[in-house]
Amino acid sequence: MRMAKIINAICGDGWCIHPDKIEAICEVLNVRLSGGFRSDAEIKAAVAQAKDNVSINVKARPGQTDSTGGNVAVITLYGTLAQRTGAFDSGAISVERFSKNFDAAMDDPSVGSIVLDIDSPGGSVFGIEEMAEKIYKSRGRKKIVAVANSFAASGAYWIASAADEIVVTPGGEVGSIGVFCLHQDLSEGYQKIGVKHTLIKAGKHKAEANPYEPLDPDAKDYIQQRVNERYHVFTRAVAKYRGVSVSDVRDNFGQGRMKMAKLAVKSAMADAVGTLEDVVSELLKNKNVSFGSKAVGDDKEIKTEFNDQGDQTMAENEEKKQSPDVDQIATEAAEKAVADERERFSSLQAAFPDDPAFASEQFQSGATVDQAKAAYCDVLQERLKEEKKKKPEKKDDAESHSEGAPPLAGSNEGATGNDDDFMSVAHALAEEKGISKAKAQRQVAHEQPELFRAYKNKNR
Fold first, then answer.
1. Tens digit of pLDDT for each residue in 28-56?
2. CATH 3.60.15.10 describes domain 2-323
């Protein structure tokens, strides 16, 4: 049962992890499924190692007497990331524990700057977004520098990108920006050994993508949708943290591949090349030191084969940092346009509840409610003409002849204001403005088509 839960966790979660590591995790699972196990001593060793892989160490200059705000807290993050962990074979480490260490460093008054010592392939998506956002919101309180020492992939890079700056060791790599889900179809294997699983469930999608059956196309589409959503959040976060556009992250930050130190700096995925020791040393000298465009420990700009284009690259990156997020603006504009169209459609349907076909026609033409009401008056007038042709024309009074137009169909010039709402409004308007009753009726019908429609329906 315990292994079944682990399999479901591995195959059901989204992963921000380097693909090689997930393969290693699957190999461990396969060993366990085939009967392999770890001894008590091995489990205890794994627990101790996991704790060492998420630790905090406060550095101070030798002989320093007043350490208030001058110390550097180095927080390690080594191994596969998981929101919470126990003694798991893959060597997973706890993001929750890392978060507590980060909080402790932020709250320590003797610490003026924080170094995130990262060597991780990434891991489960859970907890990563929240951890990265916590680091990003802590900017300005203390200097935060992430050091890829020497591997910060996927979820680990997500966390690193939230720091003020990223430094990569000379032989290090960063990237693998992407998300994926894993599905294992074990049905044929179980069939060979004579094991058949029967899932008894309630709910259309309950137990979908289970490992005992081939993956259903509908379930695959749902998983792909979730992966796309996670990727959208991932790339938007990195774009915000690094001060570039989302399209720049998707097109120029490796597209799921890793980038070595110098190339990472050139493409704005990192700020400098240097060792962990050099970064700590520089921060002990000056807690506000900037590593951007410099090789740590060297006063000269980064020496790479791209030096000729270095200034141009930095200028372009600075311009991107200052420019608005075009993708975000376009997305927000599109969402607003859709919301406005939905509201217009609902308003038209509400204005013409007895004639939904007319409302739909007006929506397709792009008309507003006011424009549709004006058009509807024309429609009513045409219908009125058709009805008058079918009925013998009533004798008009002298006042109506003086206006040169017959009264509306169904009108009663001798009616009092108590006959119905339409006639009452028309008579009141005629008296108020000193116009003929026929003209008043036409005006009310034009301005209040709903009132006229109710009067027509009543007098049919």
1. 555 455 555 555 555 555 555 555 578 89
2. no
